[in-house]
Structure formats: C-alpha cells, structure tokens
Amino acid sequence: MAETLSTKKKAEQIWKKCLHFIKENVNEKNYQTWFVPIKPIEFSDNKLLIQVPSMFFYEFIEENYINLIKKALELHAGKDVTLNYLIDVNTTSNDSQSKIKLPNVSVNTKNPPVNVNNGSSSSSTKINPFAIPGIKKIQIDSHLNPNYSFENLVEGECNRLARTAAYAVAEKLGQTAFNPLFIYGGVGLGKTHLAQAIGIEVKKRYPDKIVLYVQTDRFTSQYTEAVRENKQNDFVHFYQMVDVLIIDDIQFLAGKEKTQETFFHIFNHLHQLGKQLVITSDRSPVDLPEMMERLVSRFKWGLQADITPPDYETRKKILEKKIELEGIQIPDEVISYIAQSITTSVRELEGALISIMAHSSINKRPITVELAKEIVDKFARNINREITVEMIQKVVCEYFNLKPEELKAKTRRREIVQPRQIIMYFAKKYTKASLQVIGAMCGGKDHSTVLHACRNIEDLKDTDRQIRTYIQDIDKKLNLSISTKPL
Ligand code: ADP
Ligand code: MG
C-alpha cells in the first residue's frame, strides 16, 4: 500500500511539473481540453502511467502532442522515461448505456493498443430490441453534397479539433463521447462542409444507416407546415427514425419556442438510443440568445469544437485543393497573392479564385499576379462592406415607398408599423447593434418593443405569404447591395 501511494505521489509530482511546462506551450483551450482531463496514476521503473478518458483521446494526444509531452517528461523525469496510458471508459460519457465499454488497458506509446477495439467488439455491437427482422429500412434523401467530403476539406490549425472529432464520429459511429458534436464558428469557415463530410463518411462506411442533413430554417418551416396540417406526430416520428441527424445553423432556432420544444424531444429520443447528433452554429452554445436553457445544456453534453479563420499556409492549401479539383493550373505566385490578400473566410477565398478564373477565361487573359491584383482589390473592397442599420432603413423605405421621417412617426398605422418591424428584424439579424440601439434608431422604441417586433416578423414570415415575400425581396436587395459587383 505504501508502495502504491508513493508511486502515485511520484507520478503526481512529475505530472504537475510537466503540466506547468505544457501550459506554457499550448493555448488555454487546448490545455483545458486535452491536458486537464489526464490523471497521473503511477510512476515506477521509469514508466509514467497516465489515465485518459477515451481511446480517441489517446489517439489525439499521440498524434498531436506526443512531442510536447516527451519534452516535458525529459525535462522533469529524465531521458529514459516511457509513457503508458490507461484508458478509463467510465469517464467517457454522461450516458453510459450508449457507449462502448473498453477494458482498462495499459498502453506503451510505442505499442498502440491495437486489440482494444477487437477485444470489446461484442459489447460494441448494439442490438435494437425494437427492430423487427425483415422490415426493410426506408430510403430517404440525406441531402448530402458529394463535394463536401473529408477528402476535399483541408486540415489546418483552424479546424483540427473539429475535423478530427468529426472524423472520429463518422468512423466510430456511436462509439465516441462526442454526442452531440457541436461545431461552431464564423460565416464561411467550413461548418456546413464539415458537418456534411460526417454524413458522407457515415454513408460510405455504414450504407444502411439513415443519415439526414437539414438546415434549421428548413426544419422550422417543415414544423410550421406540420402544425398547420395537424401532422406534428408524423413530423416527430420522421426525425426520430434517423441514425445520424445533422442540423445546420441552429442559431436560427433562436426565439422559436415551439420548434425548440419539438427539437428538444427529438434530440432526447435520438440521444437516448445512442443515435448521433451533429449541430452547427455561428456561435458557442452559451452565446445562443433566446434558446431554451434545457436545450443549451444538452448542446454541452458532447464536444464543442470551434473553427477559426485559416492561417496563411492553410489558405494556400485550400486554394491548391480547389485548383486541383477544377483541374486547372495557376502559377504559385498568384496563389500566394490571393492567400495573402483574402484572410477572413474560406468562402471569400473561393469567391476570389472563381472570379479570377472566370475573368481569365472570358477575356482570354492569362492568370497572372497582375490580373489577380485587379480582381482581388475590387473583391476586397466589396466584401468588407457590412450591412448597417442605415442601409436596412434605406432599402426598406425604398421598397415600401416611404420617407425616412415617416418611419419615426408615432403612429400605429399598419403601413408604418410593419416596415418598422421589418427594419428591426433585419437589424437584429444582420448587424451587431444592440436591441437598445436598434430601438433608438427606429423612432425611440425600447428593447422589448424591438424583441416583440422581431418575434412577430419571425412568426409572420412562416405563416403569412405576403410578409414572406416582403422578407425575401428585402433580404435579396440587402445582400445584393453588399455582394461583389460583376466585373
Ligand atoms: P460555413 O457553413 O461555415 O458558413 P461552408 O461550409 O459553407 O461555411 O464553407 C464555405 C466554402 O468554403 C465551401 O465551399 C467549403 O467547401 C469551403 N471550405 C471551407 N473550409 C474549407 C477547408 N478547410 N478546405 C476546403 N474547403 C473549405
Ligand atoms: Mg453553413
């Protein structure tokens, strides 16, 4: 016993020093994700045994951080120390019934635990007691775009965690603790691509699984329609039948309580059966406004992985990938030039490349840095424009043939109130202005009036054809006013 205690103490001491070193060499988030969960178990015979929460965790550390850990160990425990892993299965999930049980194994870094999965294969194949043999699974359209595959998605520091986790989810379907996998990040950084890649990979590996990709807007309008036709049950049953549900841009569920409630039930049902959920969002769960607390807390059950803008090298690789897919050739210095100039999103990077190719082929000009410069300059000038509250006011006034002063008048006339509410709705949707600011700019309204207006338009948009047309038209005009002008 004394022996065990001292080897444990020793392990703790060494690991504490190693952590100190590691902390200085990785960013805080990675430190919290990958190092804090590790437990030092024992140190004896020059071997340090650490416990990690899952097989995936072990693999991720081996792939990404082993050199750093080696260095830390060299510094604090000497050169000849080997690292052994213990995989603790009991910590992998909140929901033990849906996860596999790996036997505790001790793994030398030089000897990966190849037989771990095989050893537990009988317990990992789950039998569904409700499946009636002989009934053929129905076919549904998964709504997957074959271009959005893992092969076509370039990996970089910006998406490493998200991509690795996504791949693990697809490869070891139902066996990772990443349920839901919550992918978040800014516009055009590859969330949809990555989420779709999971679906494609699952279909490739497990053709019988029902995979369904759905945009949140579509989910919402399907739900509204189901309510109108009194077919809520069919709607819910349909979604409860899938094995992998990918729901894109969940932030659009904000403020839609009924749809959230329904999604909550679908989520619970699927999660309990060990079905995989993949969710994307433009922000982290805690930053989602007007989202039911119960739902937000579930989003945090699995893994949250963010995607950040790509660095220069990754931008270059992405361009090279696109060029390879297009089957064309572009000089290296042109690629470097685009990668240097467009830094904010992959979608813009692609857009610039496509413009350059189009311009070159239409005008029969060779693709040179000079041509790239002309186009990128114009492109950058346009894409940096943002939609402002003023722009929205202008577009809406023009659309309804109103004078800006009329909008600010104290009146309850529908011809004024509705456009004003539409402005508030778009201001909340597209700008970073606070509700107070939006209210102040729309005739001195307070923030609850703005919130009410936004909800009202949201609801009408789904139920009132006329309003839907207004919203679609104005949306187009707004986006047109900031998009790239034809060259
Ligand atoms: P988001 O959903 O985050 O707004 P998308 O997934 O629609 O972004 O990505 C925008 C475009 O950029 C897509 O055409 C996608 O294929 C491409 N893209 C994004 N990230 C990558 C990447 N890492 N490698 C290759 N293409 C990418
Ligand atoms: Mg998207």
Can you tell me about this structure?
With 487 residues, the chain is of the alpha/beta class. Helices cover 54% and strands 10% of the residues. It is built from 22 helices and 9 strands. The protein has helices spanning 2-23, 28-35, 55-64, 66-77, 116-119, 121-124, 160-171, 191-205, 216-228, 232-240, 257-272, 293-299, 312-326, 332-341, 346-362, 369-383, 389-400, 404-408, 414-430, 435-441, 447-463, 465-482; strands at residues 39-44, 47-52, 82-87, 106-108, 181-185, 211-215, 244-248, 276-281, 303-307. The strands form 2 sheets. The protein has a 5-stranded parallel sheet, with helices on both faces. It has a 4-stranded mixed sheet with strand order 1-2-3-4. The longest helix is centred in the N-terminal third of the chain and has 22 residues, at 2-23. The relative contact order is 0.07. Adenosine-5'-diphosphate (ADP) is lined by residues 148, 152-154, 159, 187-193, 318, 321, 346-347, 350.
What's this model, at a glance?
The chain has helices at 2-23, 28-35, 55-64, 66-77, 116-119, 121-124, 160-171, 191-205, 216-228, 232-240, 257-272, 293-299, 312-326, 332-341, 346-362, 369-383, 389-400, 404-408, 414-430, 435-441, 447-463, 465-482, and strands at 39-44, 47-52, 82-87, 106-108, 181-185, 211-215, 244-248, 276-281, 303-307. By secondary structure, it is an alpha/beta fold. It has four domains: 2-131, GMP Synthetase, Chain A, domain 3 (2-Layer Sandwich), CATH 3.30.300.180; 160-307, 3-Layer(aba) Sandwich (Rossmann fold), CATH 3.40.50; 331-383; 389-483, Orthogonal Bundle (Chromosomal Replication Initiator Protein Dnaa, Chain: A), CATH 1.10.1750.
